[in-house]
Design a protein that fits this description.
This protein is of the alpha+beta class. It is 29% helix and 25% strand. The chain has two domains: 163 residues, Sandwich (Immunoglobulin-like); 56 residues, no CATH class. A five-stranded mixed sheet has the order 3-2-1-5-8. It has a five-stranded mixed sheet with strand order 4-10-9-6-7. Keywords: Copper, Electron transport, Heme, Iron, Membrane, Metal-binding, Transport. GO terms for molecular function: copper ion binding; cytochrome-c oxidase activity; heme binding.
Amino acid sequence: MAIPSTKVMIQAYDDSEGDINIMVTGYQWKWHYKYLEDNIDFFSNLTTDQEEIYNKIPKGELYLTEVDEPLVIPINKRIRFLITGNDVIHSWWVPDFAVKQDAVPGFINTAWTIVNEPGIFRGACTELCGVNHAFMPVVVRAVEQETYDAWVAAKIAFSEAERLLTSKDWTKEELMERGQRVYATNCVACHQTNGKGLPPVFPSLSGNEIVLQNKSKQISILMEGVQGSAMQAFG
C-alpha cells in the first residue's frame, strides 16, 4: 500500500512548471490573478449588491458567489497556481479541484489542476481575514482552447486600449462615470455606497477634509495605501 500511495502523493504535490502559470494573490477582500506567460492581470471582485448584503432587497441565487472577473483557464492543460497574500493570511479554495492553499504574505504556495470539461467552478477564501472575509469568492471558468485563446487576445487588446487612454482629453462627465465604476469595484466594500464608511476602522469619505481640501494627500493615500491598515494602494 505504501508504494502506490506514495506515488499518488508525489504526483499530487508536484509543483513543476505548468502549461499555464497563474499567480494568485489574496487582498482584503478580493483576489488578484496574473497570467505569467501572457502578462495579463486583473482583480476579481464580488458583484453582490450592497442592498442584498444588508437585507434591503431579496438575496439572489448567486448571493456572495459571483464576481466581475472570473479566472479563465483552458481545459486539458496543466494549470499551476502560485498562491500568496498581499496583506493578511487568506486561503484559496476550489473544492472541485481539490485545491486549498493558504495565501501567506511573503511566501508562495503552489497547487495545480487539469480540468477535463468546460464549466464554472466556485470556491471561496477559507481563512478568516477580516470583516469582509465572506466577500471574496473564487470563480473559475474552464473553456475550450479556442475560446481561451480568444479571451487572451481580447484581454491583451483591452490592456493596450487602456494604455492609449492616458493621452486622451477627458471630459468631467467621462471622468465621473469611470470614477463611479472604480469606486464600486474597489472602494464600496469598506467605505460603503454612501461614502460614510464603517468608522473607526473604515473612515467616512463624506465631508472628509482630505477628500474636500487636501488633494495631494488624497492622491498619496490612493497610490501608496496606508501602512498598518486595510487601505491598500490602488491597483
